[in-house]
Design goal:
Layout lengths: L1 H16 L12 H10 L2 H14 L4 H15 L1 H38 L2 E5 L5 H13 L4 E7 L1 H12 L11 H4 L24 E6 L5 H11 L6 E5 L3 H42 L1 H9 L4 H41 L14 H29 L1
Antiparallel strand pairs: 1-3, 1-4, 2-3
């Protein structure tokens, strides 16, 4: 009896200091747990936890990337929406530049090549008309060069461009026009091709650099209204001007679509990041309670947005590269006779880098706005 009473006494005594008799195992009583929690400095503990990666105690992956991966996993739909809309914005912006850049340069080059044409009126002495009109054109200070093209030379140039066997030339060939006629003795009629001018002779006027072709054309046209040696003055830039207006319209419409796509990307970033804050509301509250710094709470969100937009930029650039190849192939098939530089149908790496930076800045701005909004709500 005395032995059992002594054992019971030792057990009660051991429970008082938290040590189990005979086992060497230490446990804390409820009173000791409360005392230990009250003595903890939670803010100092969190500061040490934040300094742990720098001190090598904890890895950055476990402390930082766990928040990033956890945030993406909790809101996978928002992440996919950010990637899709941002990739669409990158693709639309790049396609807009890809479509307007070659078209603008081609139209500018074609406009430079289109001369002002002064057509001579039919007369008995073409040499006299040529001398009079050529002298008058040379007196214009805006005119850099004047070139005379006879009707026969113009016809030969047209043959070279379209091919000599084109059906268009059957009605223009003097031998074809007399083929079915009654032939005199001795065979085919002798037709002087140099005397047969199906196209009128004309002067090609090149305007000096710095002068408006339209203004010079109007000035020449007004000057030759009373000159009987001139039949008409033409500046055949109507098609080029229409294409330029169409290009300007497409550029404005495309710009609106690109701005709308980037605005949608900003909006979806704001919504997605705000939703992640709401999903982490309890976790963020605990972090604030224990003294977590502001940067430790918001940096994972910025990193999540950065990774999402980085993936979106990659997807957008892949589709943009595909669009470059398709555009060059289509233009080569539609206009096989025209030679274009291949670099017209590709964006420079500097342009692509600018579009990518714009997308990344979009994500950072959306995240910053979402963080500011969440702080005002709290």
């Amino acid at each position: 009896m005395s032995l059992s009473r002594d054992a019971h006494t030792r057990g009660v005594a051991s429970q008082g200091d938290g040590t189990e008799a005979g086992s060497g195992v230490t446990f804390l009583s409820e009173r000791r747990v409360v005392e230990n929690l009250e003595s903890l400095n939670l803010q100092e503990l969190w500061r040490q936890l934040e300094d742990a990666p720098r001190l090598g105690v904890l890895g950055y992956g476990k402390l930082f990337f766990s928040y990033v991966v956890g945030g993406i996993h909790r809101n996978i739909v928002g992440t996919l929406a950010i990637i899709l809309l941002t990739a669409l914005a990158v693709f639309l912006c790049g396609t807009l530049l890809l479509a307007t850049k070659p078209l603008a340069e081609i139209l500018f080059a074609e406009d430079l090549r289109i001369p002002i044409k002064v057509y001579l009126a039919p007369s008995e002495s073409e040499e006299t008309s040529r001398e009079i009109v050529g002298r008058l054109l040379a007196d214009f200070p805006e005119v850099e060069r004047v070139e005379f093209v006879s009707g026969t030379e113009a016809l030969n140039n047209l043959r070279d461009k379209l091919g000599g066997d084109h059906p268009l030339f059957e009605g223009l060939d003097p031998l074809q026009k007399t083929k079915n006629a009654v032939q005199p003795k001795g065979g085919d009629p002798q037709v002087d091709r140099e005397e047969f001018h199906p196209l009128p002779s004309r002067f090609l006027v090149t305007v000096r650099t710095g002068y408006s072709k339209v203004e010079v054309f109007e000035k020449i046209q007004e000057e030759f209204l009373s000159v009987r040696e001139v039949e008409k003055v033409r500046y055949q830039s109507e098609i080029v001007q229409q294409l330029q207006r169409l290009s300007s319209l497409l550029s404005r419409i495309g710009s609106l679509f690109a701005v709308g796509a980037f605005a949608s990307a900003v909006l979806i970033v704001i919504v997605a990041m705000h939703l992640r804050f709401l999903l982490r509301a309890r976790e963020v509250g605990v972090m604030k309670l224990v003294g977590a710094t502001h940067s430790f709470m918001v940096l994972p969100l910025y990193f999540e947005a950065f990774l999402s937009v980085l993936a979106a930029v990659g997807v957008g650039l892949i589709f943009l590269w595909w669009a470059e190849l398709r555009l060059y192939e289509e233009v080569s098939m539609l206009l096989p006779r025209l030679e274009y530089r291949t670099d017209l149908f590709s964006l420079s790496w500097l342009t692509k880098a600018g579009i990518s930076c714009a997308a990344l800045l979009t994500a950072l701005f959306g995240t910053w706005f979402s963080v500011s909004l969440f702080q005002r709500e709290r």
